[in-house]
Design brief:
About 15% of the residues lie in helices and about 40% in strands. By secondary structure, the protein is mainly beta. It has helices at about 150-155, 195-200, 230-255, and strands at about 1-5, 5-10, 15, 20-25, 30-35, 45-50, 55-65, 65-75, 80-85, 85-90, 90-100, 105, 120-135, 150, 160-165, 170, 175-180, 190-195.
């Protein structure tokens, strides 16, 4: 996706993700699209400034509403690309990856609130001026993980995936860093809505693959979908196929419905006994 002098995209294990139904708002400051997700695969958010001497900017990445990292692009930088592939907290970091959302049919979880940002990866690019300053020692937020479990009915219509995080690793933190003061320019927002590719295909967002003939081997569990995520994807596919077939039957029934024939009213005169009727 592209907004002005910047473009952004998602790379999953070295391969750029396909974007579906890309839209840009009337103000040209927000772009939205859909991408497919696959549990267990790592990803990174990439963005590019297309002019070498462009404005100073700061990119902030959030996943499912949780802040991950901030990357600066200064005007004098020779590098015009930036990427975020980790959640950073102080001296520790964790890789970003797609994973199955923990779902349950426990009725005690019904009504538990679900973040409205679940299933979204957002890159927000701010503009302003930078100055070099000493890093302040403040409270460091913990490395977040989706340890919470939700009721399957609460998120069935949203997604069956979320962003998870790899093992913690140490990282070097310099005592000095660039601090940005935002200006009055509106930020640019790139929003990537991710879903399992099967759900995107079932909802008509992504094209369906060519049908393939699968031969099942009795007693071989390798071809079965054991995860709840796979089961829900299959349900979505079947529900959409059922809806399509019902519409076809309804249309065909409407075409075969017999038409009512309008009959003209014929005025009848009573025959009086003894009356002579002229048949000539």
């Amino acid at each position: 996706m592209r907004l002005g002098d910047f473009s952004a995209y998602i790379v999953v294990e070295g391969e750029e993700s396909k974007e579906y139904e890309v839209t840009v708002d009337s103000g040209g400051t927000q772009a939205t699209c859909w991408i497919g997700s696959e549990a267990g695969k790592k990803f990174s958010v990439m963005w590019r400034r297309h002019s070498i001497n462009g404005p100073a900017s700061r990119g902030e990445v959030t996943v499912d509403g949780v802040g991950c990292c901030c990357i600066n692009l200064l005007p004098r930088d020779n590098e015009v690309t930036a990427s975020c592939s980790r959640m950073v907290r102080g001296t520790t970091q964790r890789d970003l990856m797609f994973c199955d959302l923990q779902l349950s049919d426990d009725d005690a979880l019904v009504g538990k609130s679900v973040s409205s940002y679940l299933g979204e990866i957002t890159l927000r690019i701010w503009f302003g001026t930078f100055h070099w300053q000493r890093r302040r020692q403040g409270t460091i937020l913990p490395l977040t993980s989706h340890a919470n479990t939700y009721h399957e009915k609460s998120v069935k219509k949203l997604t069956t995936h979320c962003v998870g995080f790899g093992p913690e690793r140490e990282r070097e933190v310099r005592p000095m860093h660039w601090k940005m003061s935002p200006n009055q320019d509106p930020p640019l927002n790139f929003i990537f809505k991710y879903r399992p590719i099967g759900i995107l295909q079932a909802n008509g967002v992504a094209p369906r693959p060519a049908p393939a003939i699968v031969t099942a081997v009795p007693g071989d569990p390798s071809g079965t979908q054991n995860s709840l995520s796979g089961v829900l994807e299959r349900i979505a596919l079947l529900e959409n196929e059922l809806k399509r077939l019902r519409n076809e039957v309804s249309d065909e029934s409407a075409d075969r419905k017999p038409k009512r024939i309008k009959r003209e009213c014929v005025e009848k005169h009573p025959i009086i006994h003894g009356e002579i009727i002229d048949l000539t």
